[in-house]
Structure formats: structure tokens, C-alpha cells
Amino acid sequence: MAKSTTRYVCQSCGTVFAKWAGKCDACGTWNALVEEAVASGPAASPATARLTRGSRTVLDLVPLAGETAEAPRLVTGISEFDRVCGGGLVPGSALLVGGDPGIGKSTILLQAMAALGMGGKRALYISGEEAIAQVRMRAKRLGLETSPVALAAATNIADISATLERAPVADAVVIDSIQTMWSDALESAPGTVAQVRACAQALAQVAKTRGTAVILVGHVTKEGQIAGPRVLEHMVDTVLYFEGERGHQFRILRAVKNRFGPTDEIGVFEMHDSGLQEVANPSQLFLGDRSGQAAGSVVFAGIEGTRPVLVEIQALVVRSSLGTPRRAVVGWDSGRLSMVLAVLEARCGTSFGGFDVYLNVAGGLRVTEPAADLAVASALLSSLEGTPIDPHTVVFGEISLSGAVRSVSQTENRTKEAAKLGFKAAIGPPGVRPLASGLAARDIQTVGSLVTAICPSAVPGGDKK
């Protein structure tokens, strides 16, 4: 006979403990352990019983060198969304979309389902947070009220699974959101680790057996990570993050995991009253409000996936009245800023010790590649010396701790994008070459050479004017 016992599961990381504690030893979260009932014994788990009793089936092993017909992707027609997914939704896959509240997750997915429905596909939208009338109000605001999308408002995972299994096969279904789903087989509340794990597993199983592309909407924590157990991201095939600043109209859809495509692609959208509109040329949009004659402003030629993107990096260096100067960063890694400041002080003779440093990536984009080091260093030197950088120049390159400028990938694509947008010069690592279109190029061997290129009149170690 099965014996009922209890265990304590951390709601942040999913670690299991035998006794309750105020703090999770694995992730350090306070008051995150929740008691869950679990049965033990020979008859406790049906899966265990199947492993020990009944017939056994010999697996049919096949050679790796074989051919399998690839199912056609579901192309929504929203090119930025399809690009991030790797060319469209894959039938039978599970996709997880996370983002801050109000960033536009439900909006973009409703637009994608409407596009599939208008294309003759069977699309479902199941909401656990809104009533059907509320979803219809949002669809009317977006101009999608006539789209052939089937709606439902439910949170019981058993009812949802039964509907997907018995109804005509759907091409794609959205579950908004996975944290509101619950299974009556578990005693824990919706949103807990056990519920999220069980509901995601059930929906992933439906996706594989029915050939339906299941899209799960996930809440995020204050740190920006998907809420719930980390195993949730391992269970799905694709993980997308929807990013953006509340004060900007730009939204970035970024792939961080994709079993069917690249993991470094981004899609750029612009928020309007009629919903999210895709941006075909994000470089031109990010540079639309740029003031080229201000000191501390430089254009960085970056790469996001396979697409070159030009963004403005802004730096402000002002004398500090505090004992410990401030270092504020938006859109870049604060640790990397500290490294660039240390290299400039050690290799160039400049001093930032008595200055507050503020760094911002304009447009709400978050830059992660090391190729932005040289652009950040240029903006810092320009602001420190009060000397504007030529507004028709782009800068890119990685800086090492020795002060050397290292080469980066896809140099030609960066310079071609700059030339297409009317820039006249490029400052980069060794290997950057001029283009036939008239783009001049200057390679920088060390950050010491950067001081001469950016601020010819700068005096190393001098005070800011």
C-alpha cells in the first residue's frame, strides 16, 4: 500500500527538500519552499509500475544515416516573427515566449494566430487570464475581429488536452499563460513548480502526438528570467524573449533557444495603436532621432544573428561630487563597462576616477556582443574630452585587457550596412577594409591609437575641460 509523505519544493528553482526552511540553499530565495504531497511505495507511481510489471517491447533501432521527410513550416506572414522562429513555426513543436507584463506578448501572438487563420490554417487561442469578451475587445482594437481564430477561456489542463485531442487537428494553438494552468491531479496551487512542470509536459505531449505547434506564454521574474522551474525551458523546443523599454516604442523579439533555427536572431517591432508593426530596417529606425554633433555619441555597427544593426551608443562623463563615483548602464553589461574603463586608464593614461559615468544604448536595444567595446571606449573618450565624433563614422571592435583591439566576425556585413545608410568612414580592428561605395576605413591596433583617432587634441591624464 502506498504511503503518503510530504516534501518541500522551491518555487523559484525547483529544488526539493525534506524539511522546510526559510531560505532555499540552491538559489538563495527566501520564503520560496512550498509543501507538496507525494506518494511513495511500490504502487505509488504508474510509471514505476510499468517498468517493473507487464509486457516489455523491444525498441526498433534505426541507423543514423537515414532520410526523414521534413514537415513544411507554418509561415505566419509576419516576417520578423518567422525570422526569429527559423523560418516559421514547426508542426509538433513547443515554443515558449516570455517577457515583462504589458510588453506585447499576447498582442503579437494574437496577430500571428490571426495571420495563420487568414492563410487557411486552423489556429486556436486559449486564454487563462482573460475572458473571451476581453480577447475579442483586443482583437477589435487590432482590426482582427473577422479573423477565423477559435477562442476559449480555460485553465484546467485536462479539459484543454481533451479538447486538443478530440477536436479537429489544429495547426497552432496559443496557451496564455502556462502559469495559470492547473491539473486536478496535483494539490498545489496554479503557478507552482509542480503545476507548471506537469502542465507543460502534458501540452508538449499533445504537440508531439497531434502535430500541433503549441505556443506557451510565460511570466518572468523581476530579474527577467522565465518564472517557474528551469526545466520548463528544457522541455520546449524554442524559447523566445520579448524585450523593450516602456519609454520606447520599439520591441525586440530574441531567440535564446531554438532546435530548428539560429539562437541569435532578433525581430524588431514598433508599437502602434493598431498593434505591433514589424520593422524591416531597424538600423534606420534606431538612428532616426540621433543628434550627430553631441559629444559622447557614437554609432556602433553590430550584428544580431545574421542581420547587421546600427545603433547609437551614448556616454556622459561628468565630475562627481560623491566619494564613490556612479556607474550607470542601460542596454549593456555593467561589468564590461568597468573593464573598458580600467583598460582606458591603464593603457591610455586617461582618468575616470573622479567622474560619474553614464552609458546608454539608444532605442531600448540590449547589446551583448564584445564588438561594442571600441564604440563604448570612443563614446567615453569623446564625452571626457568634450569632443564630438564625426557623425558619419561607425565604430566596432573588441578590446582585450592588454589594450589591443581584436578582430570581430562579419566585418564586411557591418561596413556594407553603414555604407547603405550613408556613413562615410568606419573605425575598426585590423582587417577592416575600404569599400568601393566610398566608405573609408581606418584600423586601430590598440586603444592608444583610438585616443588620437577620436580626440586628436586630447591630453592623456588631463582634466576635463
Architecture overview:
This protein is of the alpha/beta class. It contains twelve helices and 21 strands. The protein has three domains: 43 residues; 202 residues, Rossmann fold (3-Layer(aba) Sandwich), CATH 3.40.50.300; 170 residues, Ribosomal Protein S5, domain 2, CATH 3.30.230.10. The strands form four sheets. A nine-stranded mixed beta sheet has the order 6-5-7-8-4-9-10-11-12. The chain has a seven-stranded mixed beta sheet with strand order 15-16-14-13-17-20-21. A three-stranded antiparallel beta sheet has the order 2-1-3, with no helix packed on it. The radius of gyration is 27 Å and the shape is globular. The termini are far apart. The C terminus is likely disordered.
Q: What's this entry about, in short?
A:
The protein is of the alpha/beta class.
Number of strands: 21
CATH topology of the largest domain: Rossmann fold
Percent of residues in beta strands?
Answer: 25-35%
What is the number of helices? 12
Instruction: Compute the number of structural domains.
Output: 3
List keywords for this structure.
about 475 residues, Rossmann fold, Ribosomal Protein S5, domain 2, 9-stranded mixed sheet, 7-stranded mixed sheet, about 25% helix
